[in-house]
From TrEMBL:
InterPro entries associated with the record: C2_dom, C2_domain_sf, PI-PLC_fam, PLC-like_Pdiesterase_TIM-brl, PLipase_C_PInositol-sp_X_dom, PLipase_C_Pinositol-sp_Y
Gene Ontology CC terms, in alphabetical order: endoplasmic reticulum; nucleus; plasma membrane
Residues annotated as domain PI-PLC Y-box: 94-161
PROSITE patterns: C2 (PS50004), PIPLC_X_DOMAIN (PS50007), PIPLC_Y_DOMAIN (PS50008)
Localisation: Cytoplasm; Endoplasmic reticulum; Membrane; Nucleus
Annotated source species: Mugilogobius chulae (yellowstripe goby)
Protein name: 1-phosphatidylinositol 4,5-bisphosphate phosphodiesterase delta-4
UniProt cross-references to CDD domains, sorted A to Z: C2_PLC_like (cd00275)
GO molecular function, one term: phosphatidylinositol-4,5-bisphosphate phospholipase C activity
Listed GO biological process terms: intracellular signal transduction; lipid metabolic process
Length: 284
């Protein structure tokens, strides 16, 4: 949970009380083993826990790295810190400086453009950085429509935190479709694994189409792969209408016959719409 805090100390105490009351045991308030931490806990160790990201006075505090031109808020102190940081960076690459001087509990914030630059110019070092520390990537200030970058490329290099907005649904979902229906499976992951395959379309059976099609994918980095099932209302003369979708990590897929309950574009359920599929995963 990333908080931009402009409250007085008194109101911050009230916020802390509300967070503790509402989030309960899920809120991580102490170290996992009760001892001073020496490294960032693994995602598995933090499973089911909620972390609050905010500036803290004294003790473990966060260091922000951000681009002024992309709309980050700054004050006189941050200008001074940024000026000092830039002088250091002239003689030392940024990620190398982070490896030497940054603490594991500090959080780095990058705009999407700066994160892509790190990805292209220092990909391996960026991965190592994200293994040591949390990294937040936020959309460019030029995205005035509140759109979001594709988070998959950031996940591929280990960035953990992103700012995302749900897209508004762009078509109405009907319980019964009078034209044809088509389905597709998409793989999102490392560039080598990006792929999309479609079924044939079924005419005049939008309510309960049956495809009996087999879609095969070869995946090289399964731990980073996401599988997206999409159903569309097929149209010969115009763009297909979106019906429903469901996305999940490949690592969470179970083999055998499975029901996939479809969601709208904004993630809400659209019962009773679902897909009945057979999944088989083999190692090459």
């Amino acid at each position: 949970m990333s908080m931009e805090n402009h409250c007085s100390v008194e109101q911050q105490r009230v916020m802390a009380q509300h967070l503790t009351h509402i989030l309960g045991n899920k809120l991580l308030k102490t170290t996992l083993d009760g001892k001073p931490p020496i490294r960032l806990p693994s995602p598995q160790e933090l499973k089911g826990k909620i972390l609050v990201k905010a500036k803290k006075i004294g003790g473990l505090e966060e260091t922000e790295v951000s681009d002024d031109e992309d709309g980050a808020e700054i004050d006189d102190d941050s200008i001074h810190r940024d000026s000092l940081r830039r002088r250091v960076m002239r003689s030392l690459p940024e990620l190398q400086h982070s490896r030497i001087h940054s603490k594991f509990y500090e959080v780095a914030s990058f705009t999407e453009s700066k994160a892509r630059k790190q990805l292209k110019e220092a990909g391996a070092e960026f991965v190592n950085h994200n293994a040591r520390q949390l990294t937040r990537v936020y959309p460019s200030g030029f995205r005035t429509d509140s759109s979001n970058y594709n988070p998959q490329e950031m996940w591929n290099v280990g960035c953990q935190i992103g700012d995302q907005w749900s897209a508004a649904a762009q078509s109405e979902h009907k319980g019964r479709f009078h034209r044809g229906s088509s389905g597709a499976s998409e793989i999102h992951g490392v560039p080598l694994d990006q792929n999309k395959q479609e079924t044939r379309w079924i005419e005049n059976n939008g309510f309960n189409p049956v495809w009996y099609d087999t879609l095969r994918f070869t995946i090289h980095a399964p731990e980073l792969a996401m599988v997206r099932f999409v159903v569309e209302d097929y149209d010969k003369t115009s763009k297909n209408d979106f019906v429903g979708q469901y996305t999940l990590p490949l690592s969470c897929m179970q083999q055998g016959y499975r029901h996939i309950h479809l969601l709208s574009k904004d993630g809400t359920s659209i019962p009773p719409s679902s897909l009945f599929v057979h999944v088989r995963i083999t190692e090459l």
